[in-house]
What does this fold into?
Amino acid sequence: MTFLSDIWYVAWRELVKFFRSKVRVTVTLIQPLLWLGLMGNVLQGFAKAPYVQWMLGTKSYLAFMTPGIILMTVLFGGVFSGISIIWDRRIGYLEKMMAAPISRGAIPLGKMLAAAIQGGIQVLIIVLIATALGVRFAAGPAGVLLIILIAMVFSTILSGFSLAMAVRIKTQETLMALVNFLTMPLMFTSNALFPRAAMPSWLSAIARVNPVTHAVAPIRELTLHGWNWGAMYIGIAVIVGLALGMALFAQWMFHRATVE
Amino acid sequence: MNAAVEVENLVKVYKGGVRAVDGISFSIKEREIFGFLGPNGAGKSTTIKCVIGLLRPTSGTIRVLGADVRRDPGVVKRSIGYAAQETAVDDRLTGWENLYLQGRFYHLSRAEIRRRGEEVLKLFGLWERRNDTADTYSGGMLKRLDIACALIHRPKILFLDEPTLGLDVQTRKTIWEYIEALRAEHEMTIFLTTHYMEEADVLSDRVAIIDRGRIVALDRPGALKAAIGGDLITVRFSSGDGLEPVLAALRDLPGVREVKLAPDGIYRIVVERDGDRLIPRIVRLAGEHGIGIHSIRLKRPTLDDVYLHYTGREIREAEGSREEHIRTRVMSWRIRR
It folds into this structure.
């Protein structure tokens, strides 16, 4: 029980700070509006062509794009998790936590939980905005709940990776550079924003194994078509597996680096 | 009397071969304020971090209240409080939230945190500001909050690593008052490190002087000062004539080691101890010989002199040398990991 409590209070600290920062909360609200409202509506023009509609699997580019925006948002959120560890080490807070009788593993897990909760809130906002812009989620409210859950699990893959790297990397600038180097290609070699049918074959091959594509599959299925487990279970299994693996990896890195 | 902390032959060698702590032994009694005095890079923080279980010693044994740090780190952690050199306060949280979180990390209940939190915040004069975020606090307030956090779980021993580093003189004295109040009212054992002579002198019951990873002297500040030599009395007579009989009589006084004339016309009298008691006798002697005294001063050895005596350097010199500079940088890099 104390392990769960430790995780929760590590997360609690991050969440209190998140909600206290008006800028961060405002950006969280406005960003999806920009993506969906601006990019979604501009590209909607392309979707008028029947061939494009065939590639997208829907008449609405906005509906096609919404799962991509959901994942992009949690991806960018999760990936910066590690910065908080670097910051904590700088101000001595990391050491303060480790001098307390809390479980060391609770520190990365708590930060992953905080990133997941923030991501979940962001996804809910995106769903609401998309609904307002005319997207109808085929799987209904329960489907939306599962979408949020998948996105949260997906976010822990990125936050886990970022935290594991932050253990070794000593400056925020280096971590940001590494993270940016990885996230953009990860996003654009997936089918989050563009259908694989429109990709050249080599890119399509990369997209097929990209974890973002695996996360997109169940979310897009729930958005466009409804409850179809046959099209969802592989994606969900891959995401859950990767999340667990990353959680263990982050903990292992953390243990290794803090016991000297 | 039981020992609160017992350290035997502690050695810590960092990766890369820097011997930060090189065979240190000491024991701290209960309800004692024990000071570790030395320049940056002497091994003070490394010793503390080994004692509280943040660093793994290369060799040696450490017992805190009878528990082995390596074997029962949980027991040790629960019975001690630690305020690091860096003031580890989250400045985006309020004072109360910082304290609350710390209480939760020590697995205290909400009610315990509320009761104990109010007590320590009032003790440290922060109760009125508890709902302000810590980024509005002054440096001294942050340090006080940090120490208050270390007390939330009622530790038996408090470890303070450079508690007044970087604070101005006034704030430093305030912190000292709080530390003394802690010992007086809460019967706490306190282990503090410092590179301020005055701090070690004023606060500590006993001081260990640490230099390049070794303890070179350990005793009460008064005893350390007495051990290196006596008091110095400087006398300026009204006139330079007819002094010989007085000087001869002075040399015969018990405890006087040496009387000599400095180029500035002032006589320096080195005595073994209790220089203050000799002053009236000197005045009387001069009077008996009809010699007037213009001024008389007593100078006692300071901890600076003690430090100089044992290490052959002034503490500021020690920090300035290139070798020490490199050593300090390597160690602070290692410690932060």
Observations:
- Chain B is about 40% helix and 25% strand.
- Chain B touches chain A at residues 15, 52-56, 74, 77-78, 82, 84-90, 92-93, 97, 101-102, 104-107, 133, 149, 334, 336-337 (CB under 8 Å).
- The two ends of chain B are 37 Å apart (CA to CA).
- Chain B has two domains: 3-225+307-336, 230-299.
